[in-house]
Amino acid sequence: MAVDLNVGELVAGARRGEARAVARLISLVEDESPSLRDVSAALAPHTGRAHIVGLTGPPGVGKSTSTSALVTALRAKERRVGVLAVDPTSPFSGGALLGDRVRMQEHATDDDVYIRSMATRGHLGGLAGAAPQALRVLDAAGCDVILVETVGVGQSEVEIAGLADTTLVLVAPGTGDGIQAAKAGILEIGDIFVINKSDREGANTTRRELRNIVAMRESDWKAPIVLTVATTGEGVAEVVTEIERHREYLAGGELDQRRLARVRREIEAMALASLHRRMGDVTGDARLGTLAADVLAGRSDPFAAADLLVEHL
Amino acid sequence: MAVDLNVGELVAGARRGEARAVARLISLVEDESPSLRDVSAALAPHTGRAHIVGLTGPPGVGKSTSTSALVTALRAKERRVGVLAVDPTSPFSGGALLGDRVRMQEHATDDDVYIRSMATRGHLGGLAGAAPQALRVLDAAGCDVILVETVGVGQSEVEIAGLADTTLVLVAPGTGDGIQAAKAGILEIGDIFVINKSDREGANTTRRELRNIVAMRESDWKAPIVLTVATTGEGVAEVVTEIERHREYLAGGELDQRRLARVRREIEAMALASLHRRMGDVTGDARLGTLAADVLAGRSDPFAAADLLVEHL
User: Fold this and answer.
1) Which of A2, B23, B60, B130 gives 20 to 30 Å between its CA and that of B284?
2) Does the model's pTM come out above 0.95?
């Protein structure tokens, strides 16, 4: 096993497309292994090529099925594909609630598809802290496109957009999803809208709603709206075309801006996590205990205590 | 208006029970006013008396109705009551999605009830950063009991427990809520379980499920399970009795432990928010930009960049 942990060899193996090396590296990331820093340093020169595509949308809209259909469509164009299903579980809950990943199994034997689910529970820095490292592994492994999907609900649906070059927002027709999505703010982050289950009633109404929202935006990129039926694959090739069109648009300058903003957030999250750890180490912990006792007794207030804590870091 | 902003006078007014002063102070907290530090310092000596009770549970369980019924029951015992309805909206969404607060209006004219909703969107430190300050205002204003309730769903449901001395977990009968709640981890945080809408079928099954869960816990406090119909007030007096019994239990030593842990988290959150702000100031921002560019070009990796950022704070 010691040989396995040679980070340089693992990265070389991942670059040659060895599935085991890729899996191993992502595990090191997920487990916050002590060698994570070495992994990150070794990957750095080999990243930046993959196009990262986020999938977001309300529960039940067919994200998992759409992801699988996209893999099929991308493979038809001979793209090497990575899939990262991120599971932002509660800090208390035990295992990953991964749901139905059955559809993914049809790709399990394809050497040019890497599928990985990842729990971010308990990671310092959460989704923003852990997922980018896993994306770097898949990037270095030569994926042309990486699909990132969240399992479950909540704010991380929006967070996922912060990881992606291109964000697909999925909605279902006629279920008021449009309005719900607007409330949750996810419409603001969509580069491409996908109305899945578009064989159901209400698809045209939903398209009209979305068109109105897109029309109000001030952006050079006019977000397209694609109708799909992911279970049959209908419309999915068009989604791939739009993804590639968006990539070309981004290449005009916005890609670097987006990625720079992303890396900034990532560095910030890591720096904060590192400072947080220091507050919890032996010295920091004793100091924090004293400060908290002062606040509880009314001798100090949280702002003053926080200042003192920062001062001593 | 300048007179209004005299923090010392506002705190004195709040302590005399003046509703306007209380409202004004909470607004200062909510808006992250520059005078927030002065507010916090002025409140510090006058806090620690109120019993903070958190209400949590899945959407549709009747949290708002239960909160209102609890206010009625507490007023019948001549307790002064504060209600803080916290709205943890998405970072993108606009206004507060406050839902139906109609039931609260029956208490609106009662001088011994303070009702306040509060949006925590965009607050550095989120719920953990903003809500405790508002609770201190209500505490200093002489509330005997403060009920804290979240509006909406998600992880903040669990976070709310971190703010409370006593946490009520509400479930509805026979809807599989028990299992859902277990998944979300909220059963682990309940000091008192309330099966609301207990006139519906399945209340006894749900009680049995909860009893099994409670029985597995290793704790001196045996969490009681109370059946209520909040719309009629049935069982609500018993909930108040259990809240008071839990407070007595806590007084045996656990109260100080819980509050100390809470203040620790609060100080940590504030210190991290302050460090985060520094990263975003003029100097920090330029440095972060350079570091991000290095990572993007493959000259550095996020861990190394985060180290350099922390070093220069």
Assistant:
1) B130
2) no
